[in-house]
């Protein structure tokens, strides 16, 4: 069977020289820039990678298209040229209107194709989805690998599709919502996407131990935690590092360290196999301890992101976070001891929250000392306890997601209008992650004493010296990091170029920048842009001792924007389906 799986844009995006599409015609909400998308949304949902890997293992021809930032004209051209038997589209709340536009167009140009939706937005709303999107044939509810494979098998054999566990199906007599499908007990039987795709994001588990009111994880995964085995994870990591030559990976489990024994075993095995890469993970403050943190650091973990949400104990209690602020402070102090870059995920606008609570959050961040923090507006997603509370309090139904063109349904219900506007304006001025102080040279030296000879710790010591204009010390430590096979050699060479330029050695600076560029693959990545900017500064500025170049290349900025992981050029990837 010929199958196309799609990550759709959030709405109809205009061509650069054209006015925006009208809201009623699928364009962006009023006041929103048509190109106001980015961040994690640009990366293809991991579920689509997993679905593709499984279907290809079954022998089907599958094309996977990431159209996250494609203009509507480009989307139409690709859809017209992709004559698949089945189209599967992942639907999130943020791109539900783009999905609606895609399925309507597909039905018009491929009237006989089978159209399937899945994902976190439609999982709790299968009946509403089929009611408001008449072009859709089937909704996959929750975990999709086995369900989609059974659906494809029935279509291939010409059998009826209604009643497949884990689906809602449109039939001549109405919508049929089948019984729930049992969760996949043995996750290891699923083929790892990394064997087919160079994706820097990896999932090693499904589910979360938390039951936060704002999160739909338990709706998607039906509660509980399931894990890939250590052997499966290490096979995935080795493939990423050795086959795809990746040196920066992000483990995006909801809570990577939820199973302490397994996380520790993964870290010990990374060290035993001498896998040389840096990685990040998300976790909870109550799932960390010193032994685990030390082994994570020695295994290459560079960054930990903690779901803190609020600096107000009252807010944490209301959202059922089940973590107290002292636990966050303790986890942060332990992580700082070993030199992690620490990020806080913060939220504002939940039920009962006031401006005073928000100010408590800001004060808590200052006292706790993460390296970065990012605030998001509290958002009411279908399938969450918070959305249920919203429906009870307002009388609204889930139809609002199909009849209202907002991008996301924000909270702020219990905050005075003036206060809410001020905070939303503040969020607009502080998008993304905000940086606080880096480690000082003294702090980096103390960390290095705990991690003697550790390449990343040597590199961070060098960067700390660089920030304090200790040029000779900086060069010494950075060179030692390279001798210890620091995974991101391009970052190290760029830093050495900064040292050379500051000391007036411009030939060395040019040489180091050229070396740095060799370690970042084309097409141009964020890392390339830093190097190119430094080269431009050297070329245009008068040669003078003390020239400042930019040493800051985050380890996750080695991303290559290519299909299907990111919405890069498509070329002819879709056209092999044309009859």
Write the layout of secondary structure elements.
Blueprint: E1 2-7, H1 46-57, E2 61-66, H2 72-80, E3 86-90, H3 96-109, E4 114-118, H4 126-132, E5 138-140, H5 145-157, E6 167-171, E7 174-177, E8 201-202, E9 205-206, H6 217-221, E10 226-227, H7 230-243, E11 248-251, H8 260-272, E12 278-283, H9 290-298, E13 301-309, H10 313-318, H11 325-337, E14 341-348, H12 355-368, E15 372-377, H13 385-394, H14 400-403, H15 417-429, E16 434-435, H16 441-450, H17 455-467, H18 471-483, H19 489-502, H20 506-517, H21 526-540
In short:
With 579 residues, this protein is α/β, with parallel strands linked by helices.
Which key phrases capture this entry?
579 residues, alpha/beta, Rossmann fold, TIM Barrel, Serine Threonine Protein Phosphatase 5, Tetratricopeptide repeat, seven-stranded mixed β-sheet, 21 helices, 40% helix
